[in-house]
């Protein structure tokens, strides 16, 4: 149970010209599940490793509870970490792997056994305690790595892409396990991933990073529905949000095959901030493009003619790659209607869900 | 796909191996045969292959002439000391070079490598002077001292440590282990096969080391087997059968050890590409 505060944290590696992490500020509340997400090399793992004490902090202060811990050794920070490659000790049994940290802390043997047994039961490892890591499957190894962290009852759990080495099905399963674990343990967790689905499903709050800079911090709902900038808009959500440059004039956006009337609140924001006649970025999520007749009838001013270039049926939904006068627009629609590649299709844009970004700064206009 | 050798190439391979085996084993057989000959038989030209009567007294004589029990003991202490210290110190240095960051690391490792390129004989004089200054000449400790660190061992074990992932170290750090605990409890046990190989090499080199024991210790009861045997070699005449009998006695423990640890010997040599 702990609060963590990162204050103006910078990281610059030796011989590097630029910061790997720039001016990182975040307050993590007690018991919160925070997910750092971003593309490879965005500094999310580096930040996690600074919290763990495995990387030095170049500048800024890191607090765990009320203490600055910049110069505190990892072992004295009362944290536990789960690594991408599990980092189990191959010559030790599952039991010894989990007990290692406790033995080092000179805990009495019976208490060690009690804790390991308890964690093993929680993670379904009871029958595997005598095995060595080599005799375990990927999912089991992952659970041992979690168990090693659980037995320590640390203040903070750090996880560095813990699921990325598992196959897709197991990943979904373990994701649920981790969510359950968080509920049971009631501990602060910081989790790093490049998978936005993991971030969306697990997090209380998501920290989206790019090039060492925080792009947005917010609940999954916030970052999905109100992205701060074009990067967040395109990174969160799959398939990604459609982003196209258009020109705004008289409450209409035109360009790239698009000619649409914007909603009243958007018009107000765009007018107030002086975007009349300027080029802006227009964003619309694939699921906010509709093909149902009722949607077409309801707002004829947002209907656009398109040609289907590719139709991907995923089961309940179809992902349509549409050609709108030379611009590719992706739409996710109900799969009950059959969509044939090459055929013409009228689609309606739900302009109440449209996002607009400044062309230069890529900041949201709202 | 691996191709099964054809019959023709099988025959060729076997002939080559047999010639190799004969070349390696003939001196040993010759040694055993000579150890049973009389002095006259051993120096006959053309050579006589088999002794007329196997002269067991050669063994009796040589055993009586030299303090073999002392030799065995001294050699045993030398091997044990060198194996223990050189594997431990080499492993420590290798771990530091492979897994830790410290200023001057590359220069340090370069120096270690450079040492491997210099002939060992060059070190004899400074080593002698060092041991002399320590007042340890003519002791069993003197036999051990030059072998307590090994550049080769550092190099060999560094390769083993480099193969082991770094994240175990980080996991252990978070688990609360000090560098010493990380080394002794995690990385050292995982380098076991490397340690065994190095131990075997060190034992072999210590066993057949002649120059240093000969120089460092002059009293017979402080000599190793290899040095002790040479005292049978006279300046003007040498009793070859007795010298060979002494040699048989001196290699016997090594042969027995080899038979016991055959698997590790072969694995050690195969895994390091040494010879």
UniProtKB/TrEMBL annotation, chain A:
Gene Ontology cellular component terms for the protein in this record: ATP-binding cassette (ABC) transporter complex, substrate-binding subunit-containing
GO molecular function: ABC-type transporter activity; ATP binding; ATP hydrolysis activity
GO terms classed as biological process: carbohydrate transport
The keyword ATP-binding belongs to this UniProt entry's keyword annotation: yes
InterPro entries registered for this protein in UniProt: AAA+_ATPase, ABC_transporter-like_ATP-bd, ABC_transporter-like_CS, ABC_transpr_MalK-like, ABC_transpr_MalK/UgpC-like, Mo/tungstate-bd_C_term_dom, NA-bd_OB-fold, OB_MalK-like
Gene3D superfamilies, per database record: 2.40.50.100, Nucleic acid-binding proteins (2.40.50.140), P-loop containing nucleotide triphosphate hydrolases (3.40.50.300)
Annotated keywords: ATP-binding, Nucleotide-binding, Sugar transport, Transport
UniProt xrefs under Pfam families: ABC_tran, OB_MalK, TOBE
Keyword Transport on entry: yes
Domain of life: Bacteria
Location of the ABC transporter domain: 4-236
NCBIfam families (alphabetical): PRK11650.1
Protein name: Multiple sugar transport system ATP-binding protein
From TrEMBL, chain B:
Entry superkingdom: Bacteria
GO biological process: transmembrane transport
Annotated coiled-coil segments of the chain: none
Annotated keywords: Cell membrane, Membrane, Transmembrane, Transmembrane helix, Transport
CDD domains linked: TM_PBP2 (cd06261)
Entry's Gene Ontology cellular component terms: plasma membrane
Keyword Lyase: no
Subcellular location: Cell membrane
Pfam family, one: BPD_transp_1
Sequence ranges assigned to domain ABC transmembrane type-1 in this UniProt record: 72-261
Matching InterPro entries: MetI-like, MetI-like_sf
Transmembrane segments: 12-33, 71-95, 107-129, 141-161, 182-207, 243-261
Topology of the protein relative to the lipid bilayer: Multi-pass membrane protein
Family label: Belongs to the binding-protein-dependent transport system permease family.
Name of the protein in question: Carbohydrate ABC transporter membrane protein 2, CUT1 family (TC 3.A.1.1.-)
């Amino acid at each position: 149970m702990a609060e963590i505060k990162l204050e103006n944290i910078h990281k610059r590696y030796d011989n590097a010209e630029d910061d790997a992490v720039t001016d990182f500020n975040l307050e993590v509340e007690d018991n919160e599940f925070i997910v750092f997400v971003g593309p490879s090399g965005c500094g999310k793992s580096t930040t996690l490793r600074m919290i763990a004490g495995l990387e030095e902090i170049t500048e800024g202060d890191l607090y765990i509870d009320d203490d600055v811990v910049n110069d505190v050794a990892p072992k004295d920070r009362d944290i536990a970490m789960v690594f991408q490659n599990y980092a189990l000790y191959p010559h030790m049994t599952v039991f010894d792997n989990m007990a290692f940290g406790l033995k080092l802390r000179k805990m009495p043997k019976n208490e060690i056994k009690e804790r390991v047994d308890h964690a093993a039961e929680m993670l379904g490892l009871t029958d595997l305690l005598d095995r060595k890591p080599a005799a375990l499957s990927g999912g089991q190894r992952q659970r041992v790595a979690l168990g090693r962290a659980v037995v320590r009852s640390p203040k903070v759990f750090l996880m560095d892409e813990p699921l990325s080495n598992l196959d897709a099905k197991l990943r979904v399963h373990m994701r649920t396990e981790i969510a359950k674990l968080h509920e049971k343990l009631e501990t602060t967790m910081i989790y790093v991933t490049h998978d936005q689905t993991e971030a969306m499903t697990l997090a209380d709050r998501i920290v989206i990073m790019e090039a060492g800079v925080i792009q947005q911090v917010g609940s999954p709902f916030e970052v999905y529905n109100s992205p701060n900038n074009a990067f967040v808009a395109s990174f969160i959500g799959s398939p990604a949000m459609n982003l196209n440059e258009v020109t705004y004039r008289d409450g209409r956006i035109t360009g790239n095959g698009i000619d649409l009337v914007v909603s009243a609140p958007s018009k107000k924001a765009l007018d107030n901030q002086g975007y009349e006649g300027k080029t802006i970025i227009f964003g619309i999520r694939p699921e906010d493009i509709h093909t149902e007749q009722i949607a077409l009838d309801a707002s004829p001013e947002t209907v656009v003619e398109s040609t289907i270039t590719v139709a991907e049926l995923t089961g309940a939904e179809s992902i349509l790659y549409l050609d709108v006068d030379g611009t590719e627009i992706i739409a996710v629609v109900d799969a009950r209607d059959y969509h044939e590649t090459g055929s013409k299709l009228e689609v309606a844009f739900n302009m109440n869900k449209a996002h607009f970004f400044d062309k230069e700064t890529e900041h949201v206009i709202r | 796909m691996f191709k099964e050798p054809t019959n023709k190439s099988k025959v060729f391979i076997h002939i080559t191996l047999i010639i190799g085996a004969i070349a390696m084993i003939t001196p040993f057989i010759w040694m055993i045969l000579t150890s049973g000959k009389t002095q006259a038989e051993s120096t006959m030209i053309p050579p006589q292959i088999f002794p007329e009567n196997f002269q067991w007294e050669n063994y009796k004589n040589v055993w009586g002439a030299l303090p073999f029990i002392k030799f065995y003991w001294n050699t045993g202490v030398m091997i044990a000391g060198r194996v223990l210290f050189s594997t431990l110190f080499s492993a420590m240095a290798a771990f530091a070079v492979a897994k830790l960051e410290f200023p001057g690391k590359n220069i340090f490792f370069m120096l270690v490598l450079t040492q491997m390129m210099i002939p060992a004989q060059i070190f004899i004089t400074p080593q002698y002077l060092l041991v002399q200054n320590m007042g340890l000449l003519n002791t069993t400790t003197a036999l051990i001292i030059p072998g307590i660190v090994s550049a080769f061992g550092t190099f060999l074990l560094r390769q083993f440590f480099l193969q082991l992932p770094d994240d175990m170290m980080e996991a252990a750090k978070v688990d609360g282990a000090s560098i010493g605990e990380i080394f002794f409890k995690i990385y050292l046990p995982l380098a076991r096969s490397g340690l065994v190989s190095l131990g075997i090499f060190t034992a072999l080199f210590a066993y057949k080391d002649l120059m240093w024991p000969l120089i460092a210790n002059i009293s017979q009861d402080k000599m190793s087997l290899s040095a002790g045997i040479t005292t049978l070699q006279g300046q003007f005449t040498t009793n070859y059968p007795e010298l060979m009998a002494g040699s048989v006695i001196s290699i016997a423990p090594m042969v027995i050890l080899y038979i016991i640890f055959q698997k590790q010997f072969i694995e050690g040599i195969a895994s390091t590409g040494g010879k």
